[in-house]
Amino acid sequence: MEIKWLKNIPLKADEFFHFFKKKYNLKAEDIFKLYHITLNLKALSDGPIHKFLERIPCYLKFDEIGKRKYLMTLPVWTLRNLIKEHLDLKLTKTLYLFLSQRLPGDFFKGCAPKHSILASQDVVCELLDEEEKAELPAYLKVKHLPLTFSISGTCEEVIKLLPLLSIYALKKEKEKYSIFVTLSISEFMILAQDLKEIKALRERVESIIESLKVLFPDCFGEV
To answer: Distance between alpha carbon 170 and the CA centroid of its chain, in Å?
Structure first.
């Protein structure tokens, strides 16, 4: 088995999409599971946020960082499901109108509303770039800074790992299977405890952890 932290992948949305499509021949639906968006939200009232969270969107990280101020990270896969299933919500409408102007059109194929959407002024969005995410305080960075990994092995080896993951892309190449997954630092550290039980992965996992400590020392209490 082998695990890699894909550190040198493009971070811009359109480049990320085309990179995984060309290099790894992943389907669009799989790439939607890997690309994560982080936003600052400022609400004028509690209603739109409470109604949104009542629906319990899948694979979404949400933190209150001030009075009616929030930090949210979600994969494009979740954004698409929100648009398809929860477009009645003010926050979903705001997210669609805001992000459809800033993300590649490929991200909205098959889920874009067929009718016009009225803008809501109840929530203001700000899209964070990689530098801004890296500047987040440690307690937020460990949850909201996405890192992408690949794990490869035989069918038997890979299938044992799938119950440990929530959202991932799975690809078969001849006799080898590869899992692609985007995790926060905290999610990877939890998964690492199980991965280190696999002898073939132990050394590489420990190496990745050491690299994380060097790049993000504040997240490990080393500053």
So the answer is: 16
Q: Give, in degrees to the nearest 5, the angle at Cα 108 between 106 and 112.
A: 145
> What does residue 73 show for φ and ψ, rounded to 5 degrees?
-125, 135
**Cα distance from N-terminal residue to C-terminal residue, the chain:** 34
CA–CA distance, 197 with 195 (Å, rounded to integer): 5
Question: Cα–Cα distance between 223 and 22 in angstroms, integer?
Answer: 39
User: Beta 147-153 vs 123-127: how paired, if at all?
Assistant: unpaired
Helix, strand, coil in percent for the chain, rounding step 5: 45, 20, 30
Q: How distant, in Å, are the alpha carbons of 21, 101, 123, 176, 221 from that of 184? A: 22, 26, 25, 26, 17
**pTM for this model (two decimals):** 0.94
Q: Which residues pair with 53 in a beta bridge?
A: none
Q: Tens of pLDDT along 86-98?
A: 999 999 999 999 9
Q: CB-hemisphere CA count at 13 Å for 219?
A: 24
